[in-house]
Structures are given as structure tokens and as C-alpha cells.
Predict the 3D structure of the following.
Amino acid sequence: MNLRRIICIVAFATIATARAEAQTASPPPGRLQVSVGAGWLGGAEFGEQPANLRTASGNPYRLFTSDTHLGGAGFFEARVGFALARRVAIEGRAAIAKPELQTTVSSDAEASGSFTAVEGIDQYVFDGGILIHLDELQALGLMPFAIGGLGYVRQLHDQQLVETGHLFYGGGGVMRELFSRPQGFIRSGSIRADLRLNVLSLELDEDSRSQGSVSASLVLTF
């Protein structure tokens, strides 16, 4: 067997192997994820605020005391994510909730007892951040992840007063795959559970407020 024949055989075997690998190799996993879900947003305490009037002698005179609490509420969310690597993704989220702001007025100098004023709020949140899959902690088909990011908050009080601000969030959760396929428009489907701590800073409030949230969503990967 001369050298030319050996080269031809090696070349033919290489081409045949490459063709076989191209036919059997699976395509790369999907990178785009879209999810929709719902959850519960915890309440926040604004604390007790006294309303004092300074007298002619310079001493404060208590008119009344107010205690404000932002109630918990359900919310709906939609999320879009893009995988930068196997373990790292960026994502953006939009959420809407309708909590109630409850203010209890007591110690009124001109009336006895106390009363509570309730104000409806439409709260819109747009945030984005990073998601990191914790592969080393995967168990029982559950993939843990950690999340963190920042966002924009817009609150509409009784359809009139608009208040805006920003938030920072951090937390984590788990994902469980429902199905997966190598080809097709939808590559996989999963369910996702999130637990977050949201720190809000609003323009009319001097202090930051913390709100916990929990949610579940259906995730489709394209």
C-alpha cells in the first residue's frame, strides 16, 4: 500500500466521521427565556409619626399621631432572560400589584378614639439583574439559583398622586424542568419559584423600606 492510498483512506475516514458527528450532534441549548407568573408581596411599616404644634412658649403641643402601614398584596409578573453562559443569565422583569396604604390616626387633641384611612395604590415595578445557577447544589431535580439587581418603582395613589423611586433586590429560588427537547421552537419548559428581599427608596419617603416577596412562574426556553 503506497503513501497516496494511505492518505486517501485517512481523508475519507475523516470526512465520514465529520459527517456522522454533524448528523448526530445536538444543537446548542436555547438562550432566550420568557416566563409569566404570580406571587405575594409582603407589607412594610412606615412607623409612627407625631403631628406637633409649637406653642407661643416654645413647647410642642401634640395634635395627633399617625401610624402608617403598607399592606401585603398579590402581584402578576412577566420576565425575559438571556443566557450569557451555562450558569449565568441576565433578566428583566415587569410586575404590577395593588396594595393598600393604611394610616391609623390616634391621640387626636380634638376628638376621642382613633380612625383608619385606607388608600389604594397601583404599584408598577420594572427591574433587571443577574441570575447564577448553583449547579453544585442541584438535587431531586431542583436547580437552585441566586439573583440580584435593581429597578424602578412607580406608585399611583388613588389614580391621582404619582410617586416614583428605585429598588434593590436579592434572593434566590429553584427551577424544575418539565420537559426538554433538542429541536423545535420551544426547547424546554420549567417551573420557577423565587424568594426575594426588595429594598425600596421612594422620593417622598426619607427612609428605605424592605419588602419580602415570593412568586411562582412558568418558564419557556427558546
